[in-house]
């Protein structure tokens, strides 16, 4: 997986967690050369929904994160920040 940036230190703990999770999703997607729209279609969500998840601006349901992980050929636990 490519380098994952650190979350903004001015964010709350929840915001920082969502941002880190989104950065990990984006890094895996880009490493696999999958477009935003392609992954969104595979997962069954709108591309703007996925964009907000990757930006850490949307706290999606656990099942959505699981579908994203599977579409990336990964396990959800591998995407979750420590």
Set down the secondary structure blueprint:
Elements: H1 13-31, H2 36-43, H3 47-55, H4 62-71, H5 76-79
Helix pairs in contact: 1-3, 2-3, 2-4
Tags for this model:
mainly alpha; 61% helix; globular
Short synopsis of the structure:
The chain is an all-alpha fold and 82 residues long.
Detailed description of the structure:
The protein is mostly helical. Helix content is 61%, strand content 0%. The longest helix is centred in the first third of the chain and has 19 residues, at 13-31.
Q: Mean pLDDT, rounded to whole units?
A: 92
Question: How many beta-strand elements?
Answer: 0
Q: What is the terminal separation in angstroms?
A: 15 Å
Outline, from the CA principal axes?
globular
Helical coverage, percent range? 55-70%
Q: Report the major sheet.
A: none
Order of helices and strands: HHHHH
Which regions are unreliable across 5 or more consecutive residues at pLDDT < 50?
none
Strand content: under 5%
Task: Please count the helical segments.
Answer: 5
| Structural class assignment | mainly alpha
Taking all Cα atoms into account, the compactness measure Rg is: 12 Å
């Amino acid at each position: 997986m490519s380098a994952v940036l650190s979350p903004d230190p001015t964010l709350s703990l929840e915001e920082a967690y969502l941002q880190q999770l989104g950065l990990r999703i984006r890094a895996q997607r880009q490493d696999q050369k999958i477009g935003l729209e392609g992954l969104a279609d595979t997962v069954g969500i709108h591309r703007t929904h996925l964009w907000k998840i990757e930006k850490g601006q949307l706290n999606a349901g656990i099942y959505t994160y699981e579908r994203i992980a599977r579409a990336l050929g990964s396990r959800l636990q591998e995407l979750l920040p420590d």
